[in-house]
Queue: 4 jobs
Job 1
Amino acid sequence: MARSLKKGPFVDAKLLKKVADKKPSSTGVIATWARRSQISPEMIGFTFGVHNGKQHVEVLVSEEMVGHRLGEFSPTKKFVRHGGKMQKELEQKRQQAEIAAAKASKESPAKGKK
């Protein structure tokens, strides 16, 4: 849901206080739980540790992120692959093929150098 234009963008006051009068290079990771805060131009260059419910995910703010919310860059759900037994078999075959190709490539240059 969009925020009313007359209210203006929401930026957590504590977060602005942490960013004010500091340089991005000298400041380390700024830990925050304020996922709903919008990214303002003053935040460009800073690294925020945005909490995702379990840990802090480091987010380096760039110009393209201005206007978005901090929470958009710290996913709360972890994607677990689709597929079951069949998918595992396909992955194992692919991995074995890669190993065989790597062995073959190691052997062929060694024979040429002798």
Job 2
Amino acid sequence: MTVPGAVPRRTAPRAPLTSPRERFWILTVALLLCLVPVAVSLENLTLSTAVSPGLALASAVVWSLYTIPFLIVIRRIDYFEREPWGSLVAAFGWGGFIAAGMAMVANSAIFDLVTVTAGVATAQEWGAAIAGPTTEEIAKGVGVLLILLVSPRRPRTALDGFVIGAVVGLGFQVVEDFGYTMNAAAAEGDPGATPLVQMFVVRGLIAGPFSHAVYTGIVGLGLGYLVTATDRGWGRRIAVALLAFLAAYFVHGLWNSPILFDELGVLSLLVKGAVALAALAVGLRFARDRDAEFFSVGLTQVPDWLCSPAEQQMLASGRTRRQARRAARLAGGRPARRAMTDLQRAQADLAVAVRVGDQAAADNASERIIAARQRLSVIRSGTPAWAPPTGAPVA
């Protein structure tokens, strides 16, 4: 199916933000600077596994599986144009090995500084709240910015920054949790499964949803806005990036601090976690609206039988997409819901294809839209009554 005029020109540049030469030098300098942090991370992991190779293997499997639902959710938040897997792998690796190594070195230095200037008691109580957000969010944020700059696919909106940031944070979080598991086994002299179960419950189930993926996702929203909001002035873009960093710094520091713990105990974790999620939700609301607006422009250029104005409004938010799928299921059961889901996905892919000027992808999405509409027609009426309008060219 070829849609005349659907892709009249490249409305959004497809080239990466940097040239091949610039990417080469950025990556070369980054790799040289990261040799020490990577070595620190690998040394720490090697020492950890020596405690109990069997427990280390079990922990690696459990924490690896733990990442899967997080990756699925993070990637699906960017509904229109999802990040390439290469960028996600690089993000996870940066967080787990480079940022983690940087933090190990820098956190120790800050703890020593707090101890010298404020005393041992203050360092024990507030050291994590000072050192954690200071070193870790900077180390992770540098990785987010580098990956956005050298990504093989040009970032479009702040939502791209969120996805990269959240995956960087997830990598940091998972490797840190593995280290905590092995450290607990060494401290307790227990090479069995108990330390793994304890850490999985405390750091995985209780603290996990409010942890580094959230903090660095917030940082990523700001950095994504910085590099993509070219219709705004540099002053506003820098201010938004700084505001996002300060928000992440605050919620990370609040989580690590002793505030509320004496009054609420474990419940304080839920209160602090709610603050972190609220900060992320505010940023995501604006980012997802801007992302939908950016790509929906492409759908105004296609015929209504591919995506009508009402369907364009339906695609604009997760709430309206869910409402349409729910209505389809009530009318025709699960097959209708599946067909509606496929129709929405194809229309979103068409929006991206038109926006970036990819005729082949637009043709593919158009064919899938026709197939989904025909399935819905069969479900609703028992016959494949729907067909493209007369005269619509078919390749």
Job 3
Amino acid sequence: MHDLSFFRNHLDAVAARLATRGFALNLEEYRALDAERRAALAETEGLKARRNAESAEIGKLRKQGVDTSERQQQVREAGERITALDQKAAELEERFRALLASVPNVPHESVPAGRSEEDNAEIRRWGDPRRFDFEPKAHWDLGPEMKILDLERAAKVTGARFAVYWGAGARLERALINFMLDVHTREHGYTEVLPPFLVNSASLYGTGQLPKFSQDLFKLESTDFWLAPTAEVPVTNLYRDETLDAERLPIKLCAYTPCFRSEAGSYGRDVRGIIRQHQFQKVELVKFTRPEQSYDELDKLTADAEDILRRLGLPYRTVVLCTGDMGFSSAKTYDIEVWLPGQNDYREISSCSNFEAFQARRAGIRTKSGKGKAEFAHTLNGSGLAVGRTWVAVVENYQQFDGSVLVPEALRPYLGAERITPQGEYR
């Protein structure tokens, strides 16, 4: 949500910046609605002033024994008009806020302008893609051959875009989750939380998924419960409608959750394998910061996510998203893309975003220091990492000629093995 006063007073500048992300702000609609609201408020204030003055005059006349019944009737009529105008102004305000809720965040000035992912800018790269002396396989071939990934039975049990992990495949997924949580909590300073996997509409509104993106979500029939699309939603809303002590900030939380997304509009993309699923696991990093520290904390959060890939020895690159490729609530986003040899390409494995006060304003998350004035906190989050895609990266990057997969050294204490054999065993 935008600051209402700033939005109204800088409408042209906001519209120009939003245009760089492909969003056309209807200036006439906003100005007409605001003008109507302001007119109602101005008339109300004028009537209230006249009513107060008239009431005072009536009081004097009545003490003098003057008949004021006609003037009292005029005051009552003015009161009825004021009530009607107050209601009209409130309705117009609600309409304005509802329109405002559908407007995406304004990109930070450092975000490059562009229309699509083709205009994203690479800012760093780590690791060299491995040179194979054989043709590397994609995980959708290698996983079933090793008997650690089963998409056919998942489709039978549920449907397309679901997966079953067998044996060492399931162990590898669990090892990755534990490894990520341990690194972030023991070495990066995050506090682990285990939130509910169901969230209500207020929580989804707070982080910006509702009302605009309901088609991307799964809702439980006859309830106000939705399956969480990411831990960002429940974890950010832990502090909804609260004021945080500025001296405690930044607050750094991490959480493992399954994530559920309908992937509306993505059919035809990533139909093979487990890159784009309706259900997947993720370790999420969430921060609450003071406004002046949020961009330094974004860089640190991104570095924390990158550190997982470095420890696993997985080549990656980091790009800053252009205005046309950013998420609805984000003011600036870095995507981390891991190298997948079976697909001969870099694929997104984490998005790290600063939402500035956009989410906090929707969720009522403020911060205050001492006797200072409360202000909206800044919220940040990023995947640290998407577990399924990390699973894919490990399997594809560490595959061997004999059909086995070496286990990255950092994961061996968690998996209790150095290698996954072609039959899904581990030793």
Job 4
Amino acid sequence: MVLNLRDYKNIKDRRQALESHLSLDLKNIASFSISEEIASNKNCENMIGVVQVPIGIAGPLNIKSSNSKVQNYYIPLATTEGALVASVSRGCKAILESGGVQLITKRIGITRAPVFKVSSIKQGSEFIENVEKHLDIFKKITETSSNHLKLLSIKSWMIGRNVYLRFNFDSQDAMGMNMATIATTDIVKHLEEKTKVKCIAVSGNMCVDKKPNFLNFIEGRGISVWADITIPNSVISNTLKTTTRKFIEVVNRKLVYGSFLSGSIGSNAHMANILSAIFLATGQDAAHVAECATGVTTAEETQEGLYISIYLPDLVVGTVGGGTNLETQKEALSIMGIFGGNNGKNSQKFAEIIGGAVLAGEISLISSLAEGSLAKAHQVLARGKKISNIKYQISNKSQKTNSK
């Protein structure tokens, strides 16, 4: 017998039917606090319940943003990897003791890139020229599709009988992928009607969405983030338990040479770890980590100690829409004071916080590798050995475990 879950409109009935069909008890999946109506209608089809992920708090993260205003933030991290929260917390402690992290962000925009089929390169060239002449028309079509979306630019490529148009939109505080897709579809319909050139797919993989790629690495996507800090020698020694020279050697041999030899896009220690934990906690589309984690970490020795920076060229996040409207994710965003729409200011602030958290995670892991304590930290934190006795930075006590 085949069970057709679409026959069940109610979450409870669907889950009980599955339990009966598979002879299982899904009582833990059945226990949750988020709105069934919102989640099942907007976020998940054939919903039967939830999978719960532990959420911890790292911080305080001391940030100096582009307007030089200094603020402390507590960062919600949803993860099943023991040692991750402690690792980011230790990095936050080093940042706090070093006077705070400097952040700069630049709004690039969300992209969607359809592919069109032309008869020849001559028609393709004429088609591209026609598109470039009518940017104002496409901007009006975009604003008709959504009051919160603006078309910024269009970039074109042609190969053989294929033309790719990369539409770049400002989606304010929303991540904006669905908005961009709807607007692009409306523009495509207009182009097909006026030029008789057929669109083969509204996404031709030049967006580039949810895939590691060099185009977004070079052009940027969403919001680009830069963060840096100089850590005094005393903090490197007392808090990070290593030396500047050892730290830089790990950066060179692991991040530079190792990344080059493996063909990695980007050069970092574990940016995906921090990004995925924040994304899960705050209702972001977790698949975007595939592209967002292609960042770069650099380090140099200075007279004061260690200069370290991170660069995230492609950070696709939002504070409204999607999974951010679920109750638990909304609360996680509220911890940082950035839930909801604010003319793009909340998503930009969110990008700053993520940049600082990523830098904290890079600082701590590289220090642990330089010191040789990575395995020990996981033995203590990831195997349940006296985890309740670990003193985190959140309590303003000295952390006694060298975490990741």
